[in-house]
Automatic annotation (TrEMBL):
Pfam families: PAC3
Source species of the chain: Turnera subulata
Source species, domain of life: Eukaryota
An individual GO BP term: proteasome assembly
InterPro entries: Proteasome_assmbl_chp_3 (IPR018788), Psm_Assembly_Chaperone (IPR053720)
Protein name: Proteasome assembly chaperone 3
Amino acid sequence: MGSLEEQFPVPQKKLSLEIKGNKTDVVICAYEDHFFVMATQLETMGTILHARKEEGVSVLPTFNVSVIFGKRDEPMLVACARQLIEHIRCFSKSACDDAIMFSFCVYSNSGSSKPLLLSLGLKDHSTETLKGVVSAVSENGLW
């Protein structure tokens, strides 16, 4: 479905898929200090969000998602970013190898703590579309 391009200095993966009848292009990049994901159906960047794990003394991880540019009144975009950062946090290479361990991962200090920069240029922000994006990115992540 996607192609992995191990290029210096940034590993990246590109894929194209259809979500709700719309061609969707996805690019995933693993920078040294951030993950970058762009999903577009409009051939443009769209709304840009930043998601990161909050540092603190709490045992349970908390995440902060903010809109950098674009639509600030779209809670589904924020939910999409939150799902992706939680997935990265749990399922990175240094974290769990098995989905059965999900509850352990969420409550442990394993996983990547790299922030996520997410660009969403989508024709609609429906639950179905955003689930398709989260699924495609989760299945093809570089974490």
